[in-house]
Amino acid sequence: MEQAHQHDISGAAPAARAAAFSVHIFTALGAGLALLALLEAVREHWAAMFLWLGAALIVDGADGPLARRLDVIRLQPNWSGDVLDLVVDFVTYVFVPAYAITAGGLLLPLAAPLLGVGIAVSGALYFADRRMKGTDNHFRGFPGLWNLAAFYLFLLRWSPALSSLIVLALIVATFLPFHVLHPIRTLRLRWLTLALMALWAVLALYTLLRGFDIGEPVVFTLCVIAVYVVASDAAIRFLRSFKS
User: Fold this and answer.
1) pLDDT band at 13; cut points 50, 70, 90
2) What is the pTM of this model?
3) What φ, ψ does residue 190 adopt, rounded to 5°?
4) Would you say residue 10 has pLDDT above 90?
5) How far apart are CA 73 and CA 77, in angstroms?
6) What DSSP designation does 138 have?
7) CA-to-CA distance for 219 and 240, rounded, in angstroms?
8) CA distance 11 to 148
9) Is the pLDDT of residue 214 over 90?
10) Rounded to an integer, what distance in angstroms lies between the CA atom of residue 175 and that of residue 141?
11) Percent of the chain with pLDDT over 70
């Protein structure tokens, strides 16, 4: 296998190999965006933080198709795109949002540091779990989307006690055997999911540009979409088991 790789690489044009490596650079750019988001979080510019995290989401969604199109696995076998993706995902999906949730005045003061540590530890374990994604592309347990959890905590601004309980519940849910659909790769009702994701992106951008100063219809729509993503697959599986 190693010799085959060397043969494939030697026959590839330098421009093709450079283009393939540029995809890894593009993926790693997500870590830089995470740093910019963290700098905004330290200044308590929460909307700006989420805008940088949103840019990181775009990078995360685009690098996979680019890697497949440019045959990155074959042309750059010494660099693991999977490992790089997990590293960047951890800082953008877990670490920076953990800081925002902990330092944003959302939680009970005594509980905030402990819950922040719980987010970081559970998120790290989740990204190392080989069972995190099933063969049908559904996530197993709460999929470490702390960037989105943080977005809704800042959006809804529940009491610190309630927010603390919700964060604790999500930490526990990381290890529970329920399924959450992948917004892009899950095939069931994919057309509906993609349409809702597009609507969510528009409304979320509007929310951030307004500094979370939005009306109840927008808040309600954002919450309905979140419930659909989190609960729709579990509901379908439950109904199927009930019928059988």
Assistant:
1) confident
2) 0.86
3) -60, -40
4) no
5) 5
6) P
7) 31
8) 44
9) yes
10) 6
11) 84
Residue type, position 104, single letter:
G
Rg of the chain's alpha carbons, rounded to an integer? 20
Using CB atoms within 10 A of its CB, is residue 135 exposed (0-12), middle (13-18) or buried (19+)?
exposed
Torsion of CA 114, 119, 120, 125, to 10 degrees: 120
pLDDT value for 232:
65
CA distance 186 to 146: 20
Query: Which residues does residue 133 pair with via DSSP β-bridges, in sequence order?
Result: 139
Closest CA to 24 of 96, 73, 95, 92: 73
Residue spans of alpha helices (H) in the chain: 2-10, 14-42, 46-69, 72-75, 81-89, 96-103, 112-128, 146-156, 160-173, 190-209, 216-243
How do residues 132-180 score in pLDDT, each as one tens digit?
776 666 777 788 899 999 999 999 999 999 999 999 999 999 988 777 7
Rounded to an integer, what is the distance from CA 15 to the centroid of its chain?
32
200 within 8 A of 222, measured Cβ to Cβ = yes
Name the residue type at position 224: V
**In the prediction, which pLDDT does 2 show?**
38
Residue with tokens 């775009």: 58
